[in-house]
Amino acid sequence: MTTPKLHELGAAQAAVLLARRELKAEDLVRACLERAAARNEDIHAFVHIDAVSALAHARALDAGAVRGPLHGLPIGVKDLFDTADLPTGYGSSLYAHHRPAADAASVALCREAGAVLLGKTVTTEFAYFTPGPTVNPHNPLHTPGGSSSGSAAAVAEHMVPLALGTQTAGSIIRPAAYCGVVGYKPSLGRVMSAGVKSLSPTMDVIGGFGRSVRDAALLGAVLTGDMRLLAGHEHGTLRIGLFPSPSWPLAELDTQRAWEIATAALSRNSDSCQDVVLPQDFAELIQLQKDLMTFEMARSLSHERLRHREALSPQLVALLDAGMAIDGATHEAYLQRTADWRLRIDSLFERHDVLLTPSTTGVAPAGLAATGDPLFCRSWSLLGLPAVHLPFATGAKGLPVGLQLVGRMGEDHKLLAAAQRIHERLLY
Amino acid sequence: MTTPKLHELGAAQAAVLLARRELKAEDLVRACLERAAARNEDIHAFVHIDAVSALAHARALDAGAVRGPLHGLPIGVKDLFDTADLPTGYGSSLYAHHRPAADAASVALCREAGAVLLGKTVTTEFAYFTPGPTVNPHNPLHTPGGSSSGSAAAVAEHMVPLALGTQTAGSIIRPAAYCGVVGYKPSLGRVMSAGVKSLSPTMDVIGGFGRSVRDAALLGAVLTGDMRLLAGHEHGTLRIGLFPSPSWPLAELDTQRAWEIATAALSRNSDSCQDVVLPQDFAELIQLQKDLMTFEMARSLSHERLRHREALSPQLVALLDAGMAIDGATHEAYLQRTADWRLRIDSLFERHDVLLTPSTTGVAPAGLAATGDPLFCRSWSLLGLPAVHLPFATGAKGLPVGLQLVGRMGEDHKLLAAAQRIHERLLY
Known about the structure:
Helices cover about 40% and strands about 15% of the residues of chain A. By secondary structure, chain A is α/β, with parallel strands linked by helices. Chain A is globular. Chains A and B meet through helix 4, helix 9, helix 10 and helix 12 of A and helix 4, helix 9, helix 10 and helix 12 of B.
């Protein structure tokens, strides 16, 4: 089977064909490799591609039994995840020649499910704000967002149907929004973090990207081991909470328009949209997320801070110095406030099944020196709630824009089912 | 300064002398190296000692400014922590020649505070139950406990005043109890986990060992960045909750006697001891801890499970297989119950400042094929509460026995202050 658009197949669709043996893994992997070879020079989504190993793995899969839900699917892996067979650089020159001893747990789980690693995708420096070389596939003068820049761009550019990412502030949802793909950040604690460079363990979450909710859910099911994520559509009425958030005054015209489109479309069907009553002091979560991340990153990156300060970007050094100036008693107070908020936010979900809220202030900003503002993601990262970015509109300069849905802690399957239904309504 | 017993100095005492330049780091490090050289062949606490680097580091510290609270103190590091300068084996033949690219964050923080790494201490296989070669310093036919076997034994045998460990089920408190030293497990989330082999991130905690509460608190202050841990004694009345726990029927004679000694001693002073009202269904926490750990370890060790199954112990393989048979939906239910319990347990601390509860069923069991039962630690590991083991009595065959104190989430400074006061009352 060779269609000219094999690399454009979505993950879920390809998975069905692969499982039925109507599509060879080798053909799909080859198509994606060709696409990547053609486009990576412009987009710089991948920092490393291993075509030989990927094709060998694909052929082995074609020759054997169907391995699991990702059988034969090529994936991109953010270069913050350890890989035993591929160099792992964490977006820093410090680790230019680093070869970990083991795959990250999440990478190994994807392999176990039959995924083929196409290569490693660009991350910002230690998943903080200093960008790698990736450009936005929709306009090379604009940032793809970060820190999972390469994974979002690779999926947007059809180099791979799926890619792994991580989020501590806004590193999945923001690049998904800027690149116009679906990004899924699972509930905190559901995906094992072994072998992923640790930044702020109170908030670090592993997730990924696809071109549809169903595709992202397929990856999510493998990462969490929760097959309910594959169930798709739920019937019954959804109670959608409209949550423009206290940062709404900073939403730009494109995000405002996306909001209008979505609320108009969703009010035309049987689901109910209700304004969320803003919890008092909710706005303080943004600063709390920043402070907590600052403290924890400074300690987590202690080896790099102490031994290789000169190899770090000035922006990162400033963060680490600021973090070391915060003492552990203050950290404890942050953790306590975080725990209080996580408890308090849960009551919102007695009235709403999911929350609709902005992903970004607007479309991807011009320029490649920065990756945009995670403003609209920070609170949800702190709270540890599952989130999905839905791309459905086009803003300035043809750049994509969308909104995110946030679910109740642990209810990833309900969030993804709702996201699939809502996404369909917004797209058609 | 050369005293014949330099290696017996406690960490806090040595730290004062070192900071005043009344003791040379080189002399202290040399004394500990000599002690380790003399005793390690029998005890097998260290899997690797680097005398040359340790002495060079000590001399550099003597020649420079006082670096921090651990200036010049030799420490042992459990071989579950990555070290850039020393091999790191995680207690598995799989990693016999592994040399990580970076120090674990906690190791780097200790170095930053002036600590000198004497070497790596024995851990059980991936900190689970298959023992390394360490024997109990009080009787070589008995287990030192696990998984932080070497760290507890090295401190007990005066090879180092301090050592780093980790706990997921009972891996700090249990070996501390069996070896007769103080073990301190901080509140969940307060010590950054970067660079420590991840087993069950919902429960993994980094802590350590010393020969007094003050010594362990010194290490804890550096790990957490919370200098309140150094404050020591609190004045005012302590409300001690007596919590024999639902597992009390499994407490052996030695633990029963330790309990009698402690409750008698504590009732003779101004602090109040009150029986804790057992929360309903508290006993279920033990199974929940086991199940959660089983699910998470199976995923976290996916690389080893998939690529190197033949190099793992049968006991570990059985655990990993059991874990993979649990699905992610069940894991989510475990996480939810854990969150509910963490919330619910907090109300106990409205009536009690600290809880007194057994550390182990009794003294270290005979035999080196197993590391003893973490029964009395599992619930506290699941709940994420800070805990300290206090050694104060002698049981069968001259083996040490004691009890643990458990504090309120985040209140490590109060727990350590209480532990110091209570320990003094139990010892004298």
